[in-house]
């Protein structure tokens, strides 16, 4: 055990000072007693004599003693004055020693704090070194090739190719009717579009224009995977690239009567009596544009009519007459439910084939009825061979748009039924259950009604709204069928607010005013999250989520919240690369937990996206507080001001890059743009005046890693209902109810950020 000599010397000084004080104090007491005795003696001899002889005696016997005592008293007084002066000198020395003691104590405390800080830094460096060693071992053992977005590879084109297999075209399947050699797995989908006449029909021009704006068109037929032709009335075999059997061709047939399917081309049509399952495409009804302002609200769940139908058929089979009779009786129900069932058009009757139910009235009149209907009835054509007609597809389109949940009686081919989960948007049952329709609809709860209506509205908006959305949906469905990758997510270029020759001034970050004793995590070099590691499996394993949860089958994301995690034991046996289990998997308390990131995913970092606008010093202070935050990869400052930052503005050096990005316009939604400078899956979106402690940031990051499909944040708010006037209010008061997370301080996933930026 070492000896603290500085502390020992201080103790000796204090002991010596106390000894001197004790000696002086004792001497003063002795003097006080002596002087008291002298005064007592004076008092003894100070009396009034009675006789003259007494006076003579006193003068004779005590005069010498009094003189001696006077001299002793004077010596005592001189000694007292000398001791008092020495005491003052000692007091001055004592105060000086105390000042020195205070100064030395302060230096000792500062030295101890500095030693503690150095020990903490040493511990951080040691732990970071351990992580670096693990990273080095992982890099040495890594044998998986890096993946990237699909490359552009031009396929070989054989002009003299013959039939692939000699199979009947009426029974075509993708396996033997499609030439996959023109669609390499690593090639993006390319489409060659045949031209149409300038004076073509309006519908033809609508589809032609939608295809031209799809972004998949190529002028070079030799690199095309698919060849599209819109409503061509002439002989298809005379097309330049038909090659005898129409392989890899997609014919958009807008005729009411279907063309012959005796070729290997894929037919997309609304009317079908020869639909080849999993090969041909059911073409949905759509319009050039759609007025979203006419959309009714999703609530209330129950509307005026429980079920509505307006239609007229030219001839009725005996079986169909029974179904019609049962449905007509619904209007005679003794319950409070109201039905609008008309099998005879009162106003206009749209042209239709003999076996299908024609639409009644105008688009506006049907809109008003559907807005007042909870459910909308759709009857399949009488001829079971006809699985789709234009009127059926139009009824489905209008029902989804105006929130009347489709009730489909009979079998029909629904658009994109291999991709869309129609059970979440419609009620489908055979015509034989017509007698049970009323009972079934009454058993559906309000929550299910609103869920069905909401899902139907979303798929209408994402997949059916306009010709452009239908074309994008059709191409995505074809691409999934061919197992081709979607186009990578288009990132926003991160244009620097500084010119290429300007170097911004840098300064050391201000000293932190936070005192956090706990260790929060290692300080590591920047680590980018893996990108595009599931190009193929994402399109196959997560097909349902892409179409029915995210509603985004059109793009390939760098990573998604739906990426699977490996089982617990796999992190220690064979699949440990990148994982940082707590205490090597043994677990532990706070110390062991804070040393590594742990969790169910490999180690990763996060990016701070800070929205800034003309509050330079506030922003600089917020940036300085991010110094040495564990797991921080980069800070992106979204500069919303039209004026560039001041040239003399000093940017703090916080240990990670600070990228200042300029934007095209001043918008609060710029925080959601998927900037190409973002290299991590996790994003912490903050305002320039947010003050978060390091432990709060790390805690939020750890929580997000276990809830990647959620927005994780700190400031919560509540949407409160106004009982007097109706409608919602934004409630920022203290409340036990929270329903939203403010975007000024939140963590999210890159796909969520991209979806947010495309929602405004």
TrEMBL record:
It is found in: Endoplasmic reticulum membrane. One of its GO terms (molecular function) is glycosyltransferase activity. Residues 73-114 form a coiled coil. Its main location: endoplasmic reticulum. The chain crosses the membrane at residues 12-35. Residues 215-443 form the Exostosin GT47 domain. Keywords: Coiled coil, Disulfide bond, Endoplasmic reticulum, Membrane, Transferase, Transmembrane, Transmembrane helix. The keyword DNA-binding does not apply. Gene3D superfamilies: Spore Coat Polysaccharide Biosynthesis Protein SpsA, Chain A (3.90.550.10). It holds the Pfam family Exostosin_GT47. GO terms for cellular component: endoplasmic reticulum membrane. GO terms for biological process: heparan sulfate proteoglycan biosynthetic process. It is a single-pass type II membrane protein. It comes from the Eukaryota. InterPro entries: Exostosin, Exostosin_GT47, GT64_dom, Nucleotide-diphossugar_trans. Residues 606-746 form the Glycosyl transferase domain. Belongs to the glycosyltransferase 47 family. This is Exostosin-3. It comes from Artemia franciscana. The lineage of its organism: Eukaryota, Metazoa, Ecdysozoa, Arthropoda, Crustacea.
